[in-house]
Amino acid sequence: MRKMLLAALSRVLQGPAAAAASRVMVASRNYADFASEATFEIKKCDLHRLEEGPSTTAVMTREEGLHYYKTMQTIRRMELKSDQLYKQKIIRGFCHLYDGQEACCVGIEAAIKPTDHVITAYRAHGFTYARGVPVREILAELTGRKGGCVKGKGGSMHMYTKNFYGGNGIVGAQGQIFETYNMAALWKLPCIFICENNRYGMGTSVERAAASTDYYRRGDFIPGFRVDGMDILCVREAAKFAADYCRSGKGPIVMELQTYRYHGHSMSDPGISYRTREEIQEVRSKSDPITLLKDRMVNNNLASIEELKEIDVAVRKEIEEAAQFATTDPEPPLEELGNHIYFNEPPFEVRGPNQWIRYKSVS
User: What is the SS3 assignment for 303?
Assistant: First the structure.
């Protein structure tokens, strides 16, 4: 009889009433029990030609933390989906993934204005999303579809939106970068030069390639500082400091973000011939930017594990829907190959695309 009563009680506790009670408790916690903000100690930056640097404390509100978490998680899932689509040969050509470096673009974007101009290199997917381009347009661009952010003509390396000029193939070419440093310093341009130091240039570690790996000092006469690029709050505070420095009329500044890429240089690079799987796993386990933010938020009562899991589910759903669009949207027709050579002007004949302008797509 006692066993029967316990079994009946168990069924009651697992029934609709219990589920409803659980939902009420979660909802109550969402609105009443969380802290509105928290203050964190962050790593001090290494400085060059600066008497003081970015703050070593950072205040983060609950709303900011949730936004940073969702944005970084979206970029992470978007890049993992890109990896899958590339291996299925749906994405072709060059494809450089950003997973591991999410704190860099999200932290920078949190510190600047939408009206500020951003130029980046070819590992551009994260910056493109942080600048406001929807996931579906990014994935559609990767698959070469007309619904892509550049109408399917740019691919992984050439993505653009308002005030964003992304996907330049030459990364810090030595002669050009020093000429640029010189001109920026002479004219006191309000320019932040950022080196996302992910420890490897293509297939070579920075220690093998550079006699000095203090890239924040490379501006010589331009002040600079080195930042923990795996901590979004470090990046945000550093970018705020750099933006304020430039806006005050002091000229350019150099910011080195020490970060790490989980994938190889591009999808054609397995990424383990010049570094070990163990090294990658150690960085993931100790320094992952998403895990670091998640732990901070949970430990400081800014969010619950359950709430962040709900965000994860919503992000995965968004990525799957975007991938569906990116694999079913039509490719741009041949007659549009010569379009968009200049922004917002009608197409015209140029040498090269001329042969295609004479024809029409039949699909």
Answer: coil
- Measured CA to CA, the distance from residue 230 to residue 287 in angstroms comes to 6
Helix (H) or strand (E) holding 82: helix 62-87
200-201/118-121 β-pairing? unpaired
Q: What letter does residue 127 receive in the DSSP assignment?
A: H
Query: Above 70 in pLDDT, residue 95?
Result: yes
CA 325 to chain centre: 21
Contact 239, 108 (CB under 8 A): yes
What predicted TM-score, i.e. pTM, was given to this entire model? Answer: 0.87
Q: Got the DSSP string for 4-66?
A: HHHHHHHHHHTSHHHHHHHHHHHHHIIIIIS-SEEEEE-PPPEEES-SS-S-SEEEEEHHHHH
Torsional class of 118: left (φ above 0), alpha (ψ -120 to 50), beta (otherwise): beta
Q: Report pLDDT for 169.
A: 76
